[in-house]
Structures are given as C-alpha cells and as structure tokens.
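Worked example 3. Consider a protein that binds PBG.
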Amino acid sequence: MITGKFPSLRLRRSRKNDWSRRLIEENNLTPSDFILPIFLIEGTNKKQSINSMPGVYRWSIDKLSFVVDKAIKKRLPMIALFPYTNPKKKDSTGTEALNENNLVCKAIRFIKKRYKNEIGIMCDVALDPYTSHGHDGLLNKNYVLNDETIEILIKQSLLQAEMGCDVLAPSDMMDGRIKKIRQSLDKNGFINTQILSYAVKYASSFYGPFRDAVGSKNLLKGNKKNYQMDFRNSDEAIREVALDIKEGADMVMVKPGLPYLDIIKLIKDNYKIPVLAYQVSGEYSLLSNSIKKGLIDKHVVLETLISFKRAGANAIISYYADRLEEFLK
Ligand code: PBG
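Given these inputs, the predicted complex is written out as structure tokens:
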C-alpha cells in the first residue's frame, strides 16, 4: 500500500508521453549542426567506394555537383574537402599541396563558380594527403619539423583562400601556425577568411579509415605522436585552445569525437567560442559496420550525435551528415 510518505515527485511523469518528452527535450539536431566531409579523386565519372568506410565515396570533380546539390538541399551549412592524391604526385615535401591545379583547388573553383555562397567550403591545412611519408609536415629523422612546416602551410593557406575557400582548417598541430596563417591572410587581403583550428587533435587510431580514404595509410611511417596530442591528457587541451584563441582562431575543434566528450565539455565550459566535434572515420566505420551486421540498431547514430550536442558542441563534422533522416526516423 503506497502511503502519503511516498515521494510525490516523480520524474517519470514527464517521460510518459511522446509530446511531453518532446516538450522538455534539452538538445536536438538540425541540419545547421552538420559539416559534410567529401573525398575527391582524379578522373571523370567516378564514384569510388572506400573499403574501410561503407557508404562513403571518393568523387571526381565532374560528379561533385551531385553531392553538393544534395548538401545544399538538406540545408547543410558547410562541406569539407579532402583529396585522394595520385601517389605519383606525392613527394617528401608535399609539393602538390601548392599546385593551384591540385584536386582541392580545382574543386573549390568549381563549387564557388557554380554555387557562390550557398554553402561554405572548409579545407584542411596540412601536408599528409601530399607527402610520400604520410606525415602532416616536413620530416627529419622521423621528427616533423615545426617552423619549416609552417612556412609551407602559410603558402597552402593563401592558395586555398585565393581559390575561394571560406574556412581554413589547420589540422597539422604545429605550434604557432594559427598566428602565422592569420597574419599572412590579413596581409594579403583575406581578412574575412575564417580559421577553424583543429586545436585539440589527439594522436588517435580512430583515423585509420580516413588515411585509407586519402591514400596515406600504407605510406605512413611510424605514428603522429610527436605532434598530435597524447590521449592521456586533458589539461593540455585547455592550453592548446587558449593559444589558438590568442593567435586568432575563429572556431576550435576537438577530435576524435565520442571518446573525447569530456574534452568537448571542458573546452565549452572554459571558453566562449564555437566548438566543433569531429566524429572521425574510425567512429563512423565502427558504427556503420555494426549496423550493417545487425549487431546494433541504427539509432545509435542519433544517440552519438546528440551526445556531442549535450557535451556542448556547436556543430559536428560527420560522414552521416547527408543521411541524417535515415537515423532520425
Ligand atoms: C589530416 C587529417 C586527418 C583527419 C582529418 N584531417 C588524419 C590524420 O591526422 O592522420 C582524420 C579524419 C577522420 O579520421 O575522419 N591531418
């Protein structure tokens, strides 16, 4: 027999019906929360599947409008371009990064000409898709040189800005590059080109499928631990973000996503700046393969994406960005 002493406060009361659950929801997803990564490949009429990333493709530039039309129709605010560079064009200094007819440059020109400002374009600033050793910068005895690498990254940034890139995203983790890139952008008149810093980027095994997608996986010598962050650390994440804000970053990113929700929250609690989460390739492949095998229900995708918002992310880079409705149902 329930007595009057029994708690009259019942949290399940507001969970009872769908309308009530919707009424009190604290977080939700909209298309404006998403950035869609797109992989590029040379040639024509190509939609090439990627073994390690089921449902993700490499596109030749002549077929890009198919993907970009879709992104705009779904009201995604931005796409991110990543090239699969012909191995013959790779060398130890990543020369191809500075070729104004490389895949990324061609794609930016094509998209800007056709779509103007209907959608934002984000491009990585780093050398790994272009180097024969798969590292993000110049290599000297297995160590990635900081200041020498920055000199090339400045040129890569200027070139991409000149082509029409809206948001430059240095993903290289060199010290001091945000300041140098901001200064040279301003000096050359690109005062409105934004910088999204991959400020907190961990040396992670979750990047494997991406490296396969851009063709650097089998080339990569060693690991990236002498420049990307140690995943045992979080105080250091605060220092990285503090520096990048001071140097002029407009937005900062935490990467990978799901294993680093604590870091997203830590950064959001400490800084009033847009924080983006990158649900990286390994997270995507884990989820997608498990769903494909029927091991877990596809709704896990929505659950993980909401967790980024709950942690405080303003937006999410996700390979699911153009297929959200499959998971929202
Ligand atoms: C390049 C870069 C990487 C990713 C984005 N930009 C890989 C790396 O640093 O090795 C990973 C994205 C993903 O795994 O989805 N510096």
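Take a moment to read the result before moving on. Residues 29-328 form a domain with the TIM Barrel fold (CATH 3.20.20.70). The first strand starts at residue 34 and ends at 41.
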